[in-house]
Amino acid sequence: MSARQMKLGLFLWATGHHIAAWRHPDAHVTAGIDVDHYIALARTAEAAKFDMVFCEDAAGLREANVNIASQTSRSIGFEPISLLSALAAQTERIGLVSTASTSYNEPYGLARMFASLDNLSGGRAGWNLVTSASPIEAANFGATGLRPHADRYARAREFATVITGLWNRRPAGHDGESFSVRDPLDIPPSPQGAPVMVQAGASDDGKDLAARTADVVFSAAQTFEEAKAFYDDLKARLTAYGRQPDDVKIMPGVAPIVAATKAEAQAKYDALQELIPDDVGVALLSSYLSISDLGRYPIDGPLPELPESEGMKSRQALVIEQARRDGLSIRDLARYFAGARGHWRIVGTAGEIADELQARFEGGAADGFNVMPSWFPGEFDAFATLVVPELQRRGLFRMDYEGRTLREHLGLKRPI
């Protein structure tokens, strides 16, 4: 049995992570506002002994000028801290992690919300810090446009300092460039001390912030070499902040499609790919490249030269690199990207998927994975019933929880 075991998170996303999940014949199109749907997914993940469920959030429509049925099915959904509070009452062990933006919140209010969720759940909460990179979100908060990347991260660094100080009961009082806070929190620490800090930025600013503040880092990488380079880079940055490599768990996203045979799994994937409307795929690609007019280029032509983005710099670089490396047209790239939004995709049997996960885990490219099923609940049910037992058989994943808090699940130190 392996002495080191991987961590697993379930990335919740209404109908599923494939952009055409809403068109799957067994899709639950209004899943985003059905709390019973989320309760069932969380309970399945808890029964499979996952470390956490994770809710992403965006304070605005995800893509402009796109197929209305797709936009509606992907954009409707609960505010995530409210949803996770409901899930806290319906689960016992699994961690509950939510995105919240440092650009459109204030640290005292956000610290209080997450500390409340942490207490309500018995010490199972986590905050995924994002700076928000969409002009669509900026327009919903009275902003004249998206703040420059460096300015967003400067605000995020101060935000993280204030919120961790509040959670860790440091002396009250902060008067900084972006924030002023007078009082301590009016809620005590939970059994895990403070919510787990999660980060997902992959730019230099993002990795530096993660090395300084994060307990968990979500990442995106197509190849082993990309995943290994990110892993080694981030772990090496920790020493500058007096931290050890095991203080941060790196969990790349993975989109598995599993079946009893490779051919059956490939057929499942191909059927989903055939459901992608071209305008939806191109709109999604445009949003991640932070450009608004990709549709004016020939869809079967190459990706044009693009200016550097003030949005998601690391994701833009990843997509451009893939297009150049594999010689993909805009249509090819949009269809590939629509399956998992730039994350690693594996299609195969339980054994084949376990082999791939094991190789990256034991090869020093991941501490675990953020699982992104193509559609819910079917594809997650398949992963939970086929792949998880195979990982357990190999000694790579727990048979039962070792504790009750998210920090205990992840093997993280309790804050002082």
TrEMBL record:
<dbReference type="InterPro" id="IPR051260">
    <property type="entry name" value="Diverse_substr_monoxygenases"/>
</dbReference>
<dbReference type="Pfam" id="PF00296">
    <property type="entry name" value="Bac_luciferase"/>
</dbReference>
<keyword id="KW-0288">FMN</keyword>
<dbReference type="InterPro" id="IPR036661">
    <property type="entry name" value="Luciferase-like_sf"/>
</dbReference>
<feature type="binding site">
    <location>
        <position position="153"/>
    </location>
    <ligand>
        <name>FMN</name>
    </ligand>
</feature>
<feature type="domain" description="Luciferase-like">
    <location>
        <begin position="19"/>
        <end position="365"/>
    </location>
</feature>
<feature type="binding site">
    <location>
        <position position="203"/>
    </location>
    <ligand>
        <name>FMN</name>
    </ligand>
</feature>
<keyword id="KW-0503">Monooxygenase</keyword>
<feature type="binding site">
    <location>
        <position position="149"/>
    </location>
    <ligand>
        <name>FMN</name>
    </ligand>
</feature>
<dbReference type="InterPro" id="IPR016215">
    <property type="entry name" value="NTA_MOA"/>
</dbReference>
<dbReference type="InterPro" id="IPR011251">
    <property type="entry name" value="Luciferase-like_dom"/>
</dbReference>
<protein>
    <submittedName>
        <fullName>Nitrilotriacetate monooxygenase component A</fullName>
        <ecNumber>1.14.14.10</ecNumber>
    </submittedName>
</protein>
<dbReference type="GO" id="GO:0018529">
    <property type="term" value="F:nitrilotriacetate monooxygenase activity"/>
</dbReference>
<comment type="similarity">
    <text>Belongs to the NtaA/SnaA/DszA monooxygenase family.</text>
</comment>
<keyword id="KW-0560">Oxidoreductase</keyword>
<feature type="binding site">
    <location>
        <position position="99"/>
    </location>
    <ligand>
        <name>FMN</name>
    </ligand>
</feature>
<feature type="binding site">
    <location>
        <position position="57"/>
    </location>
    <ligand>
        <name>FMN</name>
    </ligand>
</feature>
<keyword id="KW-0285">Flavoprotein</keyword>
